[in-house]
Amino acid sequence: MATLSEVARRAGCTPATVSNVLRNRGRVGELTRQRVLEAIAALNYRPHLAARALAEGRAPTIALMVSSIANPFYPEFALAVERAARMGGQFLIICNTNDDPVAGRAYLEQIAGTLSEGVLVMNANLDFADLQKTETRGTPVVLCMWERPLEPPGLPCVAVDFRLAGQLAGQHLLELGHRRIGVIVGSKASGIHVARHNGFFDALCAAGIDAGNIPVLHARDTTAGGYQATRELLEAHPDLTAIFATNDLPALGALHAAADLGLDVPRDLSVIGITDIQLAREARPALTTVAVPTVEAAELAVMLLRDLIEAGSRDAGVEPCMRVASASCLVVRDSTATARASLP
Fold it and tell me: What SS3 state is found at 314?
């Protein structure tokens, strides 16, 4: 197997120049870059990642910590992160915590700074003190898709305005004439979906609707959780004409529950979610939802983490950086329609 020095000799440059070409760093002239690339191809050179990590004191990988890889949103987000990382010459390690803070802490202790040179965190149910400790030890941490841009978390983050996403969902149902709406929140009352919930009620209040008349259930952020919550809502309030779920999985569960109850969606019951995962497009009827900028947020998170890695450490006393992704947008499909005037 060819070595870095052999590539450098063939290209007529230094090993450091070859390394800069491989890592896309430093100033390398175009002619020199071409010679290096030709030498790499001729010698079939492949970088030795472990040796590079030892030589540079850093691993060519970043880690992404998620709460549950079984949630279809996380693989979609991870794919976007992996693409962005690979474009920068890095590899991605995915750490699935299963919503277990102990498992998450173990990942931080074993991976941060050794197997990975930075950590992205996506709703992994981790204690902020553990994340700040990881940052203090010299491994940058970036929170992905922080849901409250007006409330900085105290760590570097990429934010998405999920309150606006909730508002868009509420406005859509109101424009269709819905006033008897059930709400499924895919987290605890103080959980991560609170901004989506609040945004939805912002829209209702702006229309003069008393929030006290809107039934709300907190459920697991799963299809099964949405299914059970929808059945409970419709049994207690059979006059509902629409269901708003704070995420697509509970919304898909609402579609299943409506079918089992003999209701036609959207003639008898409209359903809307938030996120726009692939399953939302494949459902029948296809799910109306508010699409969030998943790919953009992933790319911003990788870029921010890379900037922090290059900087070496975050300056003490300086407010952590927050980058805000583009606004969410309504995607109207087949699961919403004009509100019915009477019970089915």
Answer: coil
* Domain 4-47: top CATH class: mainly alpha
pLDDT at position 108 over 60: yes
Residue 33 forms beta bridges with which residues?
none
Residues 28/12, Cβ–Cβ less than 8 Å: no
Is residue 315 pLDDT above 70, yes or no? no
Residues 6+ apart with CB under 8 A from 92: 61, 62, 63, 64, 78, 81, 82, 85, 86
Whole-prediction pTM: 0.82
Q: How far apart are CA 236 and CA 11, in angstroms?
A: 75
Q: Are strands 288-291 and 329-331 parallel, antiparallel or unpaired?
A: antiparallel
Task: Give me the helix-helix angle, 101-111 and 128-136, nearest 10°.
Answer: 10
pLDDT (0 to 100) of residue 54: 47
CATH of 57-161+294-326, one of 3.40.462.10, 3.40.50.2300, 2.60.40.180, 3.40.50.1820: 3.40.50.2300
Reported as a pLDDT band with limits 50, 70 and 90, residue 314 is low
Q: Edge-to-edge strands of the sheet including 119-122?
A: 91-96, 61-66, 119-122, 141-146, 157-159, 322-324
d(C-alpha 12, C-alpha 277), whole Å: 50
Quickly tell me which residue has 């008898």 as its tokens: 268
Query: What stretch of H or E contains 93?
Result: strand 91-96
Please check whether residue 30 is in contact with residue 36, taking contact to mean a CB–CB distance below 8 angstroms: no
Query: How many helices (DSSP H) and strands (DSSP E) are in the chain?
Result: 13, 12
Q: Do domains 4-47 and 57-161+294-326 have the same CATH topology?
A: no
Q: Are strands 322-324 and 141-146 parallel, antiparallel or unpaired?
A: unpaired
Single-letter amino acid code for the residue at 261 = L
